[in-house]
Amino acid sequence: MREGQVRIPAGCAISGLIDRTGKRMSGEAIIRSIAVMRDRSNGLGGGFAAYGIYPEYKDYFALHVFYDGMAAKKECEEFLESHFDIINLSKIPTRKVKSITDEPLIWRYFVTPLPTKLADSQLDEREFVAKCVFRVNTYINGAYIFSSGKNMGVFKAVGFPEDVAAFYKLDEYAGYCFTAHGRYPTNTPGWWGGAHPFALLDYSVVHNGEISSYDANRRAIEMYGYKCTLMTDTEVITYIIDYLHRKKGLTLEEISLVIAAPFWQTIQGMPQEKRELCEYLRIAYEAQLITGPFSILVGFEGGLMALNDRLKLRSMVAGEKGDMVYIASEEAAIRAIEPELDRVWYPKGGEPVIVRLYGGQSDGN
Amino acid sequence: MFDFTEVNPMAINFLYPNYEVERNYDRCISCRACERQCANEVHEYLPDQNKMVCDDSKCVNCQRCVSICPTRALKIVKTNNTYKENANWTGKAINEVYRQAGSGGVLLSSMGNPENYPVYFDKILLNASQVTNPSIDPLREPMETKVFLGAKPKAIERDARGRIVNNLPPHLSLSMPVMFSAMSFGSISYNAHESLARAAEELGIMYNTGEGGLHEDFYRYGKNTIVQVASGRFGVHPDYLNSGAAIEIKMGQGAKPGIGGHLPGAKIIGDVSRTRMIPEGTDAISPAPHHDIYSIEDLRQLVYSLKEATEYKKPVIVKIAAVHNVSAIASGIARSGADIIAIDGFRGGTGAAPTRIRDHVGIPIELALASVDRRLREEGIRDNVSLVVGGSIRSSADIVKAVALGADCVYIATSALLALGCHLCGSCHTGKCNWGIATQNPELVKRLNPNLGYKRLVNLLTAWKHEIKEMMGGMGINSIESLKGNRLMLRGVGLNEKELEILGIKYAGE
Amino acid sequence: MKKVYVNEKWCLGCHLCEYYCAFAGTNEKDMARALKDIKINPRIRIEEKDGVSFAVSCRHCDEPLCVKGCITGALTRKDGVITINKDKCVSCYTCILCCPFGAIAPSEQGAVQKCELCVKSAAGTPACVKGCPNGAIVFEERG
Amino acid sequence: MRYVIIGNSAAGIGAVEGIRQVDKEGEIIIISREPYHTYSRPLISYLIYGKTDREKMKYRVDGFYEDMGCAFMGGKAVTQILPDKKEVGLDDGSKIAYDKLFVGTGSDPFVPPIEGLNTVNDKFTFMSLDDAVSLEKALSPEKRVLILGAGLIGLKCAEAILHKVKSIVVADLAPRVLSSILDGEGAGMIQKHLENKGIEFRLSAGVNKFATDKAYLSTGEEVGFDILVIAAGVRPNTALLKGIADVERGIIINEKSETSAKDIFSEVKLF
Asked: CA of C102 to nearest chain D CA: how many angstroms apart?
């Protein structure tokens, strides 16, 4: 049974790091960090998001696609050719790793929307790409675009995260920001698409927890044109962030006041301006409020946001050393790669940690 | 007008009393309280024998005597005298023929549809979080039941400094997702209205004036009042429209879809006639349909004329009965400028309605709600309106299930009447309500002391609020917004595939 | 001090207060047993005429005429409550004459009886207040 | 401030309670001829009758004087009032100063000057506890009692002793019993009721002469008796205030119970 027919609750480990100067570093550090939390996952899912890894193609959308077979690849490529100018395509280079078995075909395409198609669609290029991703993932059987951002890429599979990294030769990539995820699903997803991170355009999300508001969030977000195919929290959370950030134009701080909205009793005590903002956001976007335990790392072009649910029912700790910022489910995962930290702190429930490259515009969009 | 309660011109009495009063003479101390409190004159004291006796044929089983008897000496039993009835010709069906063969008139009844059609709330089960995610303890953590009813803003607007501009349309804010549904001043008493108004104020929710206008004494409860505009336009004038927190256009009522209302002239006296602005003694007929609304675009004009009259400061609610094409109707209303849609299920109560219509017209609220919620989402207009459902909500569990199916709030009326003392005897239309609720007779109206009545309503809803918090906490939800439309929190039992599909829920065990 | 007050607006004339008062006086557990075939002699009585009715019982006046009038000192005022010591009372009924409200009456045993706010009975709060179905009799502080 | 109160019955106690309502601190002294804790005089008939006892007939609880913060001087008679020095003189020669004086001396029985009265050895009045105690000692089943006066006191005395003596005759000048309270019809009903109980009446009958155990009535009848009870009315005891304050049959006071003399108050005797 393929993931998506049924909702599979999962515990997990997450980790992320970013160099605010934008200097690119090897994936080696993130691998070591996630490996420390091996017992937080059960080998049924692992993955990484890496930002700044395709400098030479940074103006093109890098699509990472899983195919069940050649037929699906052929159909998908026909679709891509009719909508995009494909600059380059290739299999994603991988290594043989004993514990990673029956992998699908994994291809990568650097594309840009065909100008005629884009003009006809009366959409901006990012909405155009998003619609195409939904079209492929929903209607082309056996094809699944699991990464679709510029100058970034997601690498995920069924297996322990450190084995997945080895499989994708993540150590050979260099980026200014990495996030990682080890999954502990209650039953075997057996399908690579279900692993985290979940990505759409340059947004990527790794999540540890299990939200209670899932179906309320899902049914609301689907009304705005998103297709939930995986039935996982991460998918819905990614779409919510894309919707609020890209489509509604809310800032990351405002988004945290929606999805981890302060309680009414807290809002009552706020100064007037903040109080009115929180009341507005809670009423206007009540269906995007997320209740139940969650700790998420949201990667985006030029930065990283970490956020816990209001009651902080999942662990999350942040660390800082010079230009580097680390965030993980456990302090051990940070200390493993940076023993000497300038600052370590536990973000409060509902309090976002937003890290941006020096000089980057406020929200990277 | 033919008095429908007069049953038979012929000498033969076909109708045997449905209920018998059983008095335990060992416990009866002849205190005569039952005699003094029975408006139907069932009980009588025989001084010479110092004994109480009674006339069963006048008993409507309102339980007034049973409840106040200080020595618990009375009980009402269903008569064991039975017709030779069968599965097809039930006692009720036979009685109705006898009654109409005698009266020659339309059968009238009160309260909601009593037939044993399925009650879907009783076939839906709630979820609880366990192991993979924790439940939340409402005693230790904040648990929020606050809801807002109205349209959502279409887009974000920012001022020069980039701050979000508050472009929220006018909305209702409630401490919990419950409101007291429409019961007009005239069908229920002044004291009943005062109880509802004061309870709404203390609870931080709303009560609905119903189609009888608003008594001037209750203008002070304006911020907790929904003023109703029905086809009769009784008591509707500019001050009335501006006095409440919202205006409700009554297009339909669950107990009697498609037909109007009829309050007998006997009840149109004193304050009732003044408040309704109609002469004393005239029958108050609310025509069906509104004779200025023959299609959806006419409704839109009424919605906007009401908004104009109140300078766009009040949300407008459109109340409809749950009928077969309720989804299409709701979709149309969601595009008519209405801020809230109220849907009243076929079990909704009424002071008086033709029995046939009450028992056979309309559909269950659970199915109506589920399909309307889905339809509005499919059309992408769910954010245009809030959904309020009623007819009937009997407990806090029904509320949680309704919210999980997609409702923003529920309307309750029969439960509120029960809290005030009603015993569902179903004789509201006779105007002799022994509990002082559905009557204008001053001797009976006096029996509902609002100081006690409003407290019982506050107790009921305070209890329900705690229960809602417990159920939410069990599901790991600490703000009710996350329960709205959260159908994964529901499972069906004893339902067929089609019912599951319409309700949009899985079967228990899936 | 909390006293019994009557809102005739809510009095239904059902006389239940009389029965609950009589019952409280018996200190029995079951009213049926306590009052079966008994002509009750309650310390609270309903006055009614033309649809207006209300209950009358001792007002526990601040300057009680009955205590002043009592020739034996059987009527005393303690913590605001006027109580009767049935042993001392010789049923001369001077108090019955003095009370402007008619709230004192002879009891079966001869000595007078009056409402003592159920201080002695098992009811705790006055039984008439508890028994009134419509809140016409209340037990509260009124300045 | 010191208050001195003469008299320990209803008036004196009422004065104490009235003062304490207004002045919780002032010193109060009660002086009483009788040594007893304040008791209810009307109950002396019930005492003999057996309906009450010495304990239950106390007009106030034992701790009354202490609760009210007043000193009780029992068994002391006030012999004179010296308004100029604002003092009262007692029978033991001592003096007590006062700021405010209350004269609650009540009334004394009126003993009509009838010839031969002194020859009667068992004769009693019926006003005080001592009267009742001494009367009760004299009672026995074979004794015949003559009660002079069919007023409240006379009839209450008759009610009290009826079951302890052989016979009772009540004589009164008036044509009916309780002449100052009831009209003929009412008095008739009471008289009939008492006669059914075995009490004989001699109305419109005065006593011209007594001879040890015989009374010669104005009607010419001769009545034999063993015990005589004089209940022929009372006279307010105004002796102490003679020459000090306006006095007629009773002490004249205004609505504030003030007598005409400064700082001296008194009570009203109703009958």
From this structure: 23
